[in-house]
Amino acid sequence: MKEESKEIIESNKRSEKLVENILSVEKKRAKLNEPRRYIEVHIEAERLVKAILSFEKFKNKNQTGYFSYKGDSDIDLDHFLIGLIYSLTLHYGNKELGVDLDLIDLVQECSIALERSLDKFDPEMGFELPIYVYWWIVQGLKNAIDREKANQSS
After folding, report:
1. C-alpha dihedral, 8 to 9 to 11 to 15, nearest 10°
2. Can you give the C-alpha Rg of the chain in angstroms?
3. Contact 52/115 with Cβ under 8 angstroms?
4. Which letter, b or e, does each residue of 11-44 get, where b requires 16 or more Cβ atoms within 10 Å of its Cβ?
5. Residue 33 half-sphere exposure, CB side, CA atoms within 13 Å?
6. Cα 99 from Cα 146, distance rounded (Å)
7. Are 76 and 69 in contact (CB under 8 A)?
8. Spatial distance between the Cα atoms of 40 and 1, rounded to a whole number of angstroms
9. Are 141 and 103 contacting, i.e. CB atoms less than 8 angstroms apart?
10. How many Cα atoms occupy the beta-carbon half-sphere of 98 within 13 Å?
11. pTM
12. Domain ranges of the chain
């Protein structure tokens, strides 16, 4: 009987060791895939920003200087918006929010908020475009996260 108990204990120890090794390999694999995720996020952000700015209603406004961006002279509006979406997506996507939202979903929420902000932007109100767009995107991300939390709890 003691022999059987020892064998069971040894078998359990081997199983635990095997599980630890598998988890270790999975963590390493996840770290290797991390840069690919960031590249995918950047590509998706670039694709969506260029698509939004190519809409006729925004293209005309952008060419006439309506969306004037007073940042670095060598950074144009689309590069600024891509960087903004990329950084906000990673910021909100890397927080421990208890929400199962993919980074690509967050990029799409950002693009929806970006489109809405460009649609509602009026330079005569006194706001600068970067601040206005930033606020709309952050609100869009927070709303998406809150919606996902509500869906998960119900």
Report:
1. 130
2. 23
3. yes
4. eeeeeeeeeeeeeeeeeeeeeeeeeeeeeebbeb
5. 6
6. 9
7. yes
8. 57
9. no
10. 7
11. 0.68
12. 35-153
Nearest to 107 by CA among 32, 37, 35: 37
CA–CA dist 149, 143 (Å, integer): 10
Place of tokens 């988890």: 23
Q: Look up residue 8 and give its two tokens.
A: 């069971």
The set of residues, in sequence order, having a beta carbon less than 8 Å from that of 146 and lying 6+ positions away, is none
Tokens 């406004």, located at residue: 61
One digit per residue, the tens of pLDDT, for the chain of length 154 reads 566 777 777 777 777 777 676 766 666 666 556 677 778 888 888 888 888 878 777 776 665 566 665 554 445 777 888 888 888 888 887 665 666 678 888 888 999 999 898 888 887 888 778 888 899 999 998 898 888 888 877 6
